[in-house]
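Entry type: protein chain
Record version: 2
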Amino acid sequence: MIRFLVTLAAVLSLSGCGYNQFQSLDEQANAAWSEVLSQYQRRADLIPNIVNTVKGEANFEQETLTRVIEARARATSVQATPELVNDAEALKKFQAAQGELSSALSRLLVVTENYPNLKANQGFQDLRVQLEGTENRITVARNRYIQAVAAYNVHTRSFPNNLTAMVFGYDPKPNFTVQNEAAITTAPTVDFGTAQPTAPAASR
């Protein structure tokens, strides 16, 4: 009976100091991160097909194509492990690599406007639509992750939860950084009618 009462008191104490909420918020952040990685991987898997289609166009601007290939190689070389989200420097490198790939892809799609055969290629058009959908899903997944981490960090810094965080080693998580926070919910535009490259709303 004494052991039971001690256990019950411990459980109530942990609930009252936010311990259970830490578990819930941490799981939400991890799930959101997994979705971010899934969408980035989906984009990486689309790129070889896009590159192969563009290669079939005679005299296509090789520098633009090479930049996409090299940017994809750098982005996929970053080890996106679960531990990455707790390492601010590693997350920054991951974000920079994904941002570089976004810029290279944006430039590639704009350049294709100068090649009527590509615009008339149904296979390429289908890939473009898939890429546009993936970019939208990346934006949604990133936003959900940013919100999940923000909720976790607020909980971590709030009293008396910060005392629990100190005891159990729950540190605030690093988050994505954005150049324009007001535009974070705006997905990158993949538009063949655009005269200039469309810069991503935020680095990925």
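Comment: Residues 4-15, 179-204 have pLDDT under 50 and may be disordered.
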